[in-house]
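Sequence in, structure out.
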Amino acid sequence: MPELLSAQAIEQELSELPGWTREGDTLTRTWEVKGFNAAMQLANVVAYVANRANHHPDILVHDYKWVTVTTTTHDSGGITGNDTALARTIEATL
């Protein structure tokens, strides 16, 4: 089971992940795109990347042009290196 990151380690990681924030025991990012089709495409890219990493975030498509991704490591009960690695991979892919 992955170890939880300290608050300091999380803040360090977030300093290198623009747009991502900590919300309790999760990392979250929201994107605004041009419309519903773009939102669905973004969600599908995130789903593909997450599945390849075997780390599955919540992906919410809302208000037709917004996508919110929320990641946590449920088995560990909070934010681990798996979550920050996924955020980095998503950013590198998009």
